[in-house]
Amino acid sequence: MKIIRINPLDNVAVALQDIPEGEKLSLDGIGDIAVRENITRGHKIAILPVKEGEPVIKYGAAIGLAKSDIEPGQWVHVHNVRTGLSENAEYSYNHKSFPLPNPAPKSFEGFRREDGRAAVRNELWIIPTVGCVNNIAAAMVRENQDLVKGSIEGIYTFPHPFGCSQMGDDHAQTRKLLASLVRHPNAGGVLVLGLGCENLTMDQFKEELGEWDDRRVKFLICQDVPDELAAGKELLKELADYAGKFHRETIPASELVVGLKCGGSDGLSGITANPTVGRFSDRLIALGGTTVLTEVPEMFGAEELLFNRCETKQVFDNAVSMVESFKNYYVSHGQVVYENPSPGNKAGGITTLEDKSCGCVQKGGSAQITDVLRYADAVSKKGLNLLSAPGNDLVASTALTAAGAHIILFTTGRGTPFGAPAPTVKISTNTALFEKKGNWIDFNAGTVAQGLESLDQAGDRLLDYVIGVASGEKTLAEKRGAREISIFKDGVVL
Fold this sequence. Notes:
This protein is an alpha/beta fold and about 500 residues long. Helices cover about 30% and strands about 20% of the residues.
């Protein structure tokens, strides 16, 4: 099979491999198609005539409007398709529900925290409250590797440039995001590291954090001690003594929280990797677990596919508010909401934001949406959650971690090496990427395009793989030590 028509309503198909000009193709329900120009893998080919101004249909939905007449066999991309999006849209609640699969019960070997939460890692984290102490935090990581022993699996810090010279919402968001990371269950012990003169004071941070266990969380202000490295070492030893008491035990898969993200997408993202993740999401939710879908700007154009699955009118209203808020964010900065996809997305075959969005939302499967989270909010309801965060890979992945995701599933057609604080599983849309970047890609969904397995089979395989990661199997990003954060900002820097 060289092309795939995703939905019977589609007037375009997607090339599963490079197809040269002049080749003859045959498609059920359509007949023979003469290829009029070279079609690159992941790109679209017209299978029916499309008149200028008419919708181009993929996934059974309009992904744009034809700029000119398009004949069967022609390449369909940015040269002859434009977006149909605008800043204004009206939404109505038309509730839909779909049956979930019925997988066999599963469990993983994780850590049970004293507050009852589950964790998939037992690590020591150093959280800088201000960028000025990033180098000190890094030195503490280097000088205290001897603490990584027994059940303690690593010591990490997450540098960032903020915590001072910020005002208003940015100041609040930095404080909230960092406090959410401190609470993350994968950290068995946390050292909160400040300088002493920043406007994110330690008192403010403690107020944001609320209640904490002083065996698990320690605080150090570098300006208050003669030798911050020596003081940090003593505190980290105390944290290691506490964290080292936790050991892996059997925990039901229903307690897993998994973040869903894509980046460096291509024309196969919505055909292989993203729907494979969607199948995984439905299976985990059917087991009683939780998934979190974000990248709000990449819902534009496909948001109604999600809105209709909100389990209540209140959840629907919250989801609409989240999307409208992001549209207003764009407009307030003088930007159009459809300034997307990226150059890499276009090179991979994605033409418009609608095209990208219809593929992106498939990571959410078919389950009901149970809650809508603000940026840096933590999950409180099981099932599929929507999280307010931008599409930027590292900003969104950091927000997923802050929401409490134990693991993040990251689909990609182009490849990317980064890792979030939570174990980040890279899932390739195509086998060529998996073979080329075996040092980046953990899981290959390109097998679906090759006809080697169905989406349901790939979803089952991914569920088993995630259980392995939750039980201690390291992702490739973890093995390389790739652990990064990025904090969403909007305002001025003093």
